[in-house]
Amino acid sequence: MSDFLIIGGGVIGMMLARELAQSGAEVTIVDRKACAKEASWAGGGIVSPLYPWRYPDAVTQLATWSQSSYIHLSQDLLEETGCDPELRQKGMFMVDVEDHKEALVWAQKFHRPLREVDASFVYQKEPNLAKDIENALWMPEVCSIRNPRLGRSLRESLLKNPKVRLLEHQEVHGFIRAGNRVLGIKTEQGDVCGNNVIIAAGAWSAELLKLVGQAIPIEPVHGQMMLFKAEPGLVNRVVLKGGRYVIPRNDGRVLVGSTLEHFGFEKQTTEEAAASLYQTALDIVPELEKFNVEHHWSGLRPGSPEGIPYIGRVPDVDNLYVNAGQYRNGLVLAPASTRLLVDILLGQEPIIPADPYRVDR
């Protein structure tokens, strides 16, 4: 029996398994598919909330802690596995921001590097952007990470660790209970037990909690994205405009995203969204019209009230915990969300106050 049984093999679940194993614990991680193939794969990988000042302070606290940790994490994973998560430290432009004064107040309050820049500054760094930009907000420390490769490197790290057992393609159908404790889970391949059970299943977390008679306001929020096979140097930084963004990769590919839709758990792509994403891409980088669209896909975010995740013990169950509800910020909040729950599980001083993220808040 493992010390910790984690349900959900996304980035958060794998980071949890990695940190707990590094502390000396035996960990089992179970996923209904292959690890990091849901929202962790489908997202864009911006290591910052979009328009961060529009989120509650609880999100900012997690994001601030996480952003600096990605530098060391990506280096460690590359050394451990040989798989480069491709962290790009190029900064982010936010164009046509109406509430820019609120952004500057937020930046001063949280000591974040954010400032207004004029068009000449923007075009010096990104000459291929649309020529209608008059000014922008500039966050020079914002990174992006190639999330499919981050997922691959985390999975490889776990496979190399003898304290971690990976059980993929095993869907949870029920929990094994004994009084106020959860002893394990039921899957089609058999029962899996653990001294402590953690639900980190993204958009599916609320459905799993229903199996133990608990309710939590997490729901799937559908998002579609598109990928252009462009050339290196066409665009080098994350550019955000009108709530959408382009994200460059090292090989020249450019992502554009994303939609916000409520289709339940049905993942789908639509012609309407494809046309809208394509137009967004050209509105930001007109030269993308010369390049082919390589892929158009969708994913499910774990939507939660105000985007504040649930991190901690489930009420009335002594050894059941949750780490879910990061909404659009799963990747950027993952290191801090992981560390906070590890601190709770191991009885350590939390990195930040845990009350804002309580399951029973």
UniProtKB/TrEMBL annotation:
Residues 3-343 form the FAD dependent oxidoreductase domain. Pathway: Cofactor biosynthesis; thiamine diphosphate biosynthesis. SUPFAM superfamilies: FAD-linked reductases, C-terminal domain (SSF54373), FAD/NAD(P)-binding domain (SSF51905). Its EC number is 1.4.3.19. Keywords: Oxidoreductase, Thiamine biosynthesis. One of its GO terms (molecular function) is glycine oxidase activity. It is an enzyme of class 1 (oxidoreductase). It holds the Pfam family DAO. The keyword Oxidoreductase applies. InterPro entries: FAD-dep_OxRdtase (IPR006076), FAD/NAD-bd_sf (IPR036188), Gly_oxidase_ThiO (IPR012727). It comes from the Bacteria. The keyword Protein transport does not apply. This is Glycine oxidase ThiO. The gene is thiO.
